[in-house]
Design brief:
homotetramer, Alpha-Beta Plaits, seven-stranded mixed beta sheet, 28% strand
């Protein structure tokens, strides 16, 4: 939460002896002050073969005697030695968040409240919607608003436009803040691990349409929401965060929708926060979240 | 929790004006002291037609000038007028609980601890198991233990024996306290609303075998358990109670099993408690729980 | 959630035989269609003497053959017979909510999002603040904004102005949506059960200033928030709703503030919702909440 | 949960650059296979001065070319260089747990169920109680039971006997599983970080006697339990784990006691589990729990 500049390494590599030692001695050699280290050894799924090692290391930028480019240059041999997938994020470089929304307000209001309070420390270059509903509200915050209607017959053009706007905005992450349209497969594939959705059920229960109605029919005693990365596989992307709330027999579908909104916006905000702080690493169809 | 004798009416009837008035004036005419009244109007599923009205009324036995048989006799015309399904339970008549268990101890220990503390105010005429594992533990509590093995080829005989034991024990309710066998359809059908199971997942997610393993593969962030009435439809009976617990990427399947046990036993105990106090009314495939 | 007009009776009286019968037969005599009935017998605190009976009855307005004035006139003898405190609320008469806020945005944004979505079905005649911070945001929503600074030396005048504005707005309920000033005793006393505060701790833990800092020092593993009626006794008014969230040793005070906001706004919204639907009845220093 | 032998280092030292590097390179030099590493930099309380660094490292025993004594001998210079407090635990060396209990059964049954299932992988050399109540139950499990009555006038002798029994049993940790006596200051002081209590409230709310009654009087909407290390300061020791459960106005004190038991035993089991796996490090009056 404080403002000192940090570089954050997120990386994964095949598990072996000496990974932590190799990485941490790289930083200590350069007097790098590590603020936070998170490590996780993921065993092989079948119990055999080689597991995978995940790490997140947050370093005070001013403790290093060189800049980020030089840090990357010098780290490269270490990463290659360990056969690592890796990247450094710079806290001084605010991430650019593009929000997609339809006609429900709760997630949008919630995100903008957090942004206004600097809790969500991002730039929001634009909000895109298939309805005009929130133009005034968004523009009042000084954020450009783009209306991209999605008709039954011009979906392709509509999503081409969404993609153009995202590129133009140099977006880092796209958040579907109750965007009630299904993104086309090629758009999902273009931004792996960069599109975040909030689904209004406790997945894998109640995939598809009208999950609260499904939950009411089933008579469950808790309902929930799921924040996940969007993949071409609808409602099946890696889960980042989930939560539930208790209901009972007196609750109608409308009540469940109302309660559900509270869970949806909280779970989305929490998942997005983890993502923005580079705390989420994808392992196949699952996530590692270094809370 | 206190020991005064009560009669508890549970009833349902087609919704109309004047139900509460008719029932409550019946009791007040006889100076019946109502300790607790729970009411619920279930709207028609399709929004049309007639809804159904559910109620639970708990009366101090000693406030009425007659006994339970007479109470039933006098209430009958009221019930008929309202076209009611109804019954009275008598707190002086302890319910008889038969426990079925396999080789996992957590639910069994938990139930017997509650029984020993009189929190579970029932008679336990016997415990039935397909293994010998818990004979000593059960018998130490002074409860008869029956070993009924379930072989691949003699299931029919085994379940006939389970049924005979339940009848002989004059069981009111059968609890599957992690009984790892699937009851045959005819046994389920013989005791509707009287067999309670604890399923080790947050249904409807992860039906079938190895739910924790399924949850691990899926990468969910919460796991749960479900207490439900057993019907011929496996894992689909009316849900009485559910709860969840948070897990994360560091948890193995074994960890999830361990955490899950805590939820399982708590959810089973809570659901059973509601059932024993006649707080659960079945409405089709769902329950009304007057907590 | 639906829009049919209802009258809601909330009432309490000394416990005795026949209360429900008397009230429900009054309604059935006039063909009143009861949508929801909630009842609670509060036993005497010392286990002796007479308990108190609480009820909430929601009736379809159009099922009665007369209007609300006539309903009140006819119900009066029943209420007097039972020595009842009572009132009827009319769903067609929207409650008037006045919001007080300082410089934190989360509760204000959350309330206005709910109001904008008609989930919070009230009129908001004005927002009052001791800072100018949210003028633009509030006015954008078409709601008048009053800046009433509270200086060290003119508190009396400031609160006289707050009171004047509340009266002028014909406010029904005043919500302190993270209003960081202590209301004077006489203002609290003027509106019993009509001023709602959100306190940023799980009361009775951490009363007074800087509760998150207190929680951090103490090393608790969960933090919470409390929605309560304001009384002259600071942080001691009847609790309407509470909730908590898990933290751990990695969380700084700033993290706790951030997590806490999510709980604060949710708990406030939930408590306010109960209040607006006349589901909260005060019993001494405690509440009965007919969820 | 699996059975391979591990050594677990828990350590803390003044924060500085290079700690992780120094420790991890020590292990990698000797080909030590690290299964799990947890790290935490605790900033100085006043924001100035030097923080403290905490770590827990779990290594596969068979990956090292020497035994534990040699490991300790070789690690000592590293520890001294870093000015470290440190210890190694050996998973092959089961911890010895002594349970103290009075007349409530829920925590005792729960602990023995977990022990019986090997979830609690400890030796239980004896159970000590100030009542005879559970002798049969404990002895049936093959565990020695000692009745040490605590009279008003012979407390000193009683606690001398408790201490003697704990020493004789070579106890590693003493668990107060609802032991309703206050341990004397000198006994607490003799075993810092080795006596674990379960308190039946969400501390710091409701310290002292009858916390559920206090909670009922206050009208809180959630009740909880706290697992903490015992210090000479009653109910003030470092908190290991807490949890809560929702109650409402219908719940009597007796209901709260019943619900509370479920939280108490779960929170105690969870806290004890962390302790036994050397996941709890004490930092002043607080704990770091490497879950």
């Amino acid at each position: 939460m404080d403002s000192e500049r940090t570089y954050t390494l997120t990386a994964s590599c095949p598990d072996r002896v000496g990974i932590v030692s190799r990485v941490s001695s790289f930083f200590s050699t350069h007097s790098g002050w590590i603020l936070e280290t998170s490590l996780h050894a993921q065993p092989p799924d079948d119990g055999e073969g080689v597991g995978r090692y995940y790490m997140r290391v947050e370093i005070r930028a001013d403790s290093l005697p060189f800049d980020l480019d030089e840090l990357r240059r010098r780290f490269r041999p270490v990463a290659e030695e360990l056969n690592m997938e890796w990247k450094f994020a710079d806290s001084a470089q605010k991430k650019r968040l593009v929000i997609l929304v339809s006609q429900q307000e709760h997630c949008l209001y919630d995100l903008l409240a957090r942004w206004q309070a600097k809790e969500l420390d991002v730039d929001i270059p634009c909000v895109i919607s298939n309805h005009e509903t929130f133009r005034g509200f968004v523009e009042w915050h000084g954020i450009p608003f783009h209306h991209v209607p999605v008709g039954a017959n011009d979906k392709e053009a509509a999503y081409a436009e969404v993609r153009r706007l995202f590129e133009e905005a140099r977006g880092d992450v796209m958040v579907l803040a109750r965007y009630m349209q299904i993104l086309p497969v090629d758009l999902c594939a273009a931004y792996p691990g960069r599109i975040i959705n909030i689904h209004h059920s406790f997945l894998p229960s109640f995939v598809g349409a009208r999950p609260y109605h499904q939950a009411w029919v089933k008579g469950v005693k808790l309902i929930g929401a799921t924040c996940h990365y969007v993949t071409a596989d609808l409602d099946q992307g890696p889960i980042i965060e989930q939560d539930v709330i208790r209901i009972d027999h007196t609750d109608t579908v409308a009540d469940m929708v109302r309660y559900g909104k509270d869970i949806e916006k909280t779970v989305l905000a929490r998942g997005l926060h983890y993502h923005l702080e580079d705390r989420v690493l994808v392992h196949g169809t699952k996530t590692i979240v270094f809370r």
